[in-house]
Specification:
Order of helices and strands: EEEEEEEEEHHHEHHHHHHHHH
Strand content: 15-25%
Strand order of the largest sheet: 1-2-9-4-7-10
Radius of gyration: 19 Å
CATH superfamily of the largest domain: Jelly Rolls
Shape: globular
Structural class: alpha+beta
């Protein structure tokens, strides 16, 4: 369903299913989601590729180009927060330690250069965003109710930001905070590259070059931040994409293997069974039943 909802506090919610490239500029701090399908947002030289297991954040006033994928019918759902809403939210949550303080007791300040990246679309925020979308899809228009949904979405995002950005920055063993921030910014580039190229042959030298790090530095710091190697991160991502295709499409398994970047069907089945405790075929059959 396509619509644009603008609230009196300048928050703006956009739902679109039109699959064509479009150049846009964010009107506010933006959370961008995909329900089915995929979306490739190009911001300068960066490619932020999302499916329904991830979402992206874009800062206010950022020009970007959106290109929808075509494997699965898609709906892009974007929330742009107005300054008035953001200010009220920060004031009302100023002393919420669970929201604005990270695991190391540091204030959860949103750093623009780190916030603008890809995040996992976890259950809490998925539930909040889905409720908001469902309300609007059904014609809901009460602003008090909409603002409550928006607050839940932003609260959920902050918790993910704490875990994905602040806590990961704290895990990097560098003395100066500015160094940790810069290294995590480069690691975010590596992570975004893996999301955009998960179905291709990813070369470690090319990945390190993209992140402006040496191979050894990339391997060491990526492990510190994400608790796994880039290769393990890539395998996990490919399995998640395969799981989505098994759920949403009728492609045969051997085609899915190629689509997500695996070269060997038996290796894919073994890795899938290790992660999900079932085979791809049984997983699909259970969903069909």
């Amino acid at each position: 369903m396509d619509y644009i909802k603008v609230l009196s506090n300048k928050c703006r919610i956009v739902s679109t299913t039109v699959p064509r490239p479009s150049a846009q500029v964010t009107e506010g701090f933006t959370l961008r989601f995909v329900f089915g399908g995929s979306d490739l947002c190009t911001v300068g030289r960066r490619q932020l590729y999302i499916q329904n297991d991830s979402f992206i954040v874009l800062n206010k006033g950022v020009p970007f180009t959106s290109n929808f994928g075509s494997l699965i019918p898609e709906c892009v759902f974007a929330i742009e927060f107005g300054e008035e809403f953001l200010n009220d939210f920060y004031l009302s949550h100023a002393f919420d330690d669970n929201l604005l303080i990270n695991a190391h007791g540091e204030l959860a300040v949103i750093l623009p250069e780190l916030a603008e990246t890809i995040y996992p679309f976890r259950m809490e925020i998925k539930h909040a965003v889905s409720k908001l979308k469902e309300y609007l899809d059904n014609g809901g228009h009460d602003e008090q109710q909409l603002n409550e949904y928006l607050s839940r979405c932003l609260s959920s995002y902050y918790r993910i930001y704490n875990e994905e950005i602040l806590n990961k920055a704290s895990n990097l063993n560098f003395l100066h905070y500015s160094t940790r921030v810069e290294i995590l910014r480069r690691l975010n580039l590596a992570k975004e590259y893996l999301y955009a190229n998960y179905n291709r042959n990813v070369n470690l030298d090319g990945l390190a070059d993209h992140a402006c790090l040496s191979v050894n530095h990339l391997l060491r710091t990526f492990k510190l931040a994400y608790d796994q190697s880039p290769h393990q991160f890539l395998i996990q991502l490919r399995l998640q994409r395969a799981q989505l295709l098994l759920t949403k499409t009728e492609y045969p398994i051997y085609e899915i293997v190629n689509m997500v970047g695996f070269k060997c069907t038996s290796s894919f089945i073994r890795l899938f069974r290790t992660r999900y405790k079932t085979t791809p075929l049984k997983y699909r059959n259970v969903l069909a039943a």
